[in-house]
What we know:
By secondary structure, this protein is α/β, with parallel strands linked by helices. Helix content is 54%, strand content 11%. The protein folds into 2 domains: 9-276, Alpha-Beta Complex (Spore Coat Polysaccharide Biosynthesis Protein SpsA, Chain A), CATH 3.90.550; 290-424, no CATH class.
Amino acid sequence: MKYDSAIRAYTSKRLEEIESADILVGIPCYYNENTISHVVRMVSHGLAKHYRNRRCVIFIADGGSTDDTRDVAKDFEIKPWQEKVVSIYRGPAGKGSAFRSIFEAAKRLKVSACMVVDSDLRSITNDWVKYLLEPILENEYEFVCPVYSRYKYDGTITNNIVYNLTRTLYGLRIRQPIGGDFAFVGELAAHYIEQDVWDTDVARYGIDVWMTTNAISNNFKICQSNLGAKIHDAKDPSESLGSMFQQVVHTLFVLMEQNEAWWKAVKGSRSVPTFGLEKFKEPEAIHVDLDRLVSEYRTGFRQFKGLYKDIFCPECFEALKKCATKAKTKFIMPEKTWVSVLYEIAATFHRWTDNRTKLVNLVTPLYLGRVASFINQTKKMNSSEAEELVEQQAQTFEDNKDYLIRVWDEGVKTHSKQKEVATEF
C-alpha cells in the first residue's frame, strides 16, 4: 500500500499544535526499550546545555514496537521548555520510513536544523548535540556526517565497502557514510521528502547511504563531526552482518546506476572539514569468530565456485580459489582481489536486470572472507593502526577506478556469457 505521508493523523495534529521550531531531533526506533530513555535524556540535556534559547522538538519515530519502547519514551520527562512527539510512522517497515516521518516533521515545523541519532546508543553524550548541530547553525554547512572512534572489528561493512566506494565514486573522503547519526538543514529534509523513493527498498534499508549520496550529488555543503566512541548493540560480523551487507550493497549499486554520469566524471578524492572531538579514544573491543568467517568463505566458494568462475575475470577467480585453501590464521585476501570482486560484481549487477538479489547474495561469503583477512592483518594492531590499513585499501580502490569504468561499460566477459550465467540462477 502506498502512502502520501509517513505521519499519522494524531502526529499531524500534534505538529500543528507546536506550529514551528528551530531544531528537530529525530530518533528512529524499534524494540529499544532498554536504551531509548538514555538517548532521549542525552538529547534533552544537550539541547538544554547548548541551545536553550532555541525552540526544540524531540521526535521519536517508532516502527510499531510491541515492547515498552514508546511508553518509556513518553514517560521520560524532558526539560519543560522542550517539546516531545512520540509517533508510529506509516509506510514499509524499516528505518527509511522512520526517517521519512522525521523529514516531514522537519518540513512542517520549518526548522533551521534537524539531527537524527540511533536509538540503541550507549555512548551518546549531551555534547553530541553540539558536535552535530554546530556546523549547521554556526558554520553554514548543510549536511553533517559522523566520525567515530570505533574498534577495529566494528563497522566492517563501512571499512571494506561503503567508505571505499563512496570515496572512489563521489570524490569525498566521508569516513562514515552509513554512520546512523546525522544532521542537516531543513531545506535538505524538504528535498529528501520530494524524492520518489519511499515505496522502494530505500524505505526498508539503505537510507543512510542514500541520504549521503543524495547530499553529495545535489551539491549540498558537507562536513563531518567526530563524536568519539560509538558504543551500541554491536554484533559479531560472523553472525549478523550477512543480511545488512546484502541490503547496503544492493542500494550502493542502484545508486551507482542512478548517478552514473556524476561518478564517472569524478577524478581522485578530497577530504572534508571535520569538527567535534579532536582526540582519538580507544574504543572497547568486540569479539569476532574467525573460525566461522573462514568456514563461511570456504562453504560459499565450494557452493558457488562455478558461478564465480563465470562471473569474475580469471585472475580474480584464481585468487579466490587460492584463498579457499588457506588455514584460518593464514587467511589473507589480497587488496587487489577484493577491489576486483566489488568492481566486477558492480559491473555484472549493471548488466543484469534479473536475479540481482541473488547476485548480491553470492558475494556475502567473499565479504566474510575479506573481514577474516582484515582480522588476520590487524591482529597485532590497535584501532588507530588498523585505520591506516583501511585508508590504504581505500586508496587502492581509488587507484583502480579506471578498471571499474572499463568493466562497467564493457562487461567483465562477453555479453552473451553474462546473460547465460544470469539465466542459470
